[in-house]
Amino acid sequence: MVVVDARTERILRAAGDAPSVLNTQPWQVAVAGDTVTLRADRSRQLRHSDPQGREMLISCGAFLFNARVAARRESLTATVRVLPDPDDELLVAQIALEPGDDPSADELELSVAIEHRVTSRVPFEDKPLPADILVAIQRAAHAEGASLRTIQPSDASRAEVIGLIRKAEAIAAEDMAARDEEAAWTTTWEGREDGIPEKLLGRAPSNDDAPVRRFPASRGRVPFERNSTLAILTTPGDSPREWIAAGQALEHALLVAANHFVLASFATTVLENPTTRHDLRKALSLSTYPQMLMRLGTSPRPDHTPRRRRLGANR
User: Fold this and answer.
1) Residue 71: pLDDT above 60?
2) pTM assigned to the model
3) Structural domains in the chain, sorted by start
């Protein structure tokens, strides 16, 4: 077994705190000297709802961004090669950990935010985010090559967007394969290291205009806020390289949000259905490609979803 030094171990542990679709954590790592190899784990792909692996690679991109941030906390610089082998589509990145300067205050803030970032599936405070916080979050996404467009309560397109969320969920609810796939990742047990425990699914919204994903496994119904900020993350293209970039942009934005005590939850079903994804682009007159739809706001901070202790064979 390869012996991993303490700094690399801390970096990988922080990277593994990245968000992933249904907490599938679809990544594998191998360590050889100062190089970390990040691979997508096909066995953890949502084969039915994510057949192209778009969400799998977004998740791996979030892992990659955390690794970069955690490396700086260790006074290392992560030199990254994304998709280095065109013949190996699952080889997401090679990360060379090299000596660097001491981290800046901003880099330390981001690294600390990894520990505090968490998905919240409960009602948020019923008001939009302040403009200055939104600008900071948008700049973070832009720094990684993506754009973050807000959909505020006053926007004419908001009702249509929420309607598309409900439409996609209704279609998925009639699809037995989709239901079984979701149930596999939301039916958890004591000691399980992945998936979303029932207690963290939150309750289902009792109002149809709630900007939040509905999980069939949720127990009970409560009214959700109507005036929180919705945001859609987009990329110029729609290739595997841009899916990975979208994951890095998403996590950068979420860490900046966490530093402002802002949490997020995600409505992914509308982007998993090709028809509703197309309709969403049309509703928002997007020339770019939507990769993630989320609500942003403040709420009591929930527990973290569980995390795997081992991410690959060579650790």
Assistant:
1) yes
2) 0.96
3) 6-107 (3.40.109.10), 131-297 (3.40.109.10)
